[in-house]
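REQUEST ID: PR-0412
SUBMITTED BY: lab tech R.K.
PRIORITY: routine
TASK: structure prediction, single protein chain
INPUT:
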Amino acid sequence: MLRVQHFSGVPDIISIIVVEADKDRATQIVDSLRAAGECEIRIIAEPTALARQIQDMQPDVVLIDIENPSRDTLEELALASGPMERPVAMFVDRSEAGLSTAAIEAGVSAYVVDGLRPDRLKPILDAAIARFRMFQRMRKELSETKRALEERKVIDRAKGMIMKARGVGEDEAYAILRKAAMDQGKRLADVAQALVTAAGLLL
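STATUS: complete
OUTPUT:
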């Protein structure tokens, strides 16, 4: 069964937007998805409506089937489907050199050439969902690491200001900063930022 695990930990029936202009082919895709499990499916025949439909439905997955996209079309579809918020799988009949790289760089989780067959649909979607989750975790970890580094820089600047103003060592400056944070019920980094900002206003 096609299901997706949300951050709440509660599995929900997966919702899918299928971008397919050909009616017969769209029917084949829907039948294949229904055969794989319970899911909510919406077909979009006109790609120009993709961004609005995405906004309205907020699907878990976007599946795009397009014959032979240009680089501009590929990038427009990828951008409209919100590849940073959900897995996006793109199936093409033919592909020019470099387009698969462009698709992955645009955030597409799966770019499959000549691969839209009913028996391959579910495993490819499963792989796209798994890859999206992996990159989502990596983006989150990278963001947290960058924030921690920035906070460390601010704390070091605040410590330096305290050391200079009070003539104390680094450990004592840190203790003063930490006590201020505890007294105010705030995070150490927030107190340090406030000190750095206030000092900047006095320059």
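NOTES: The chain has seven helices and six strands.
REVIEWED BY: pending
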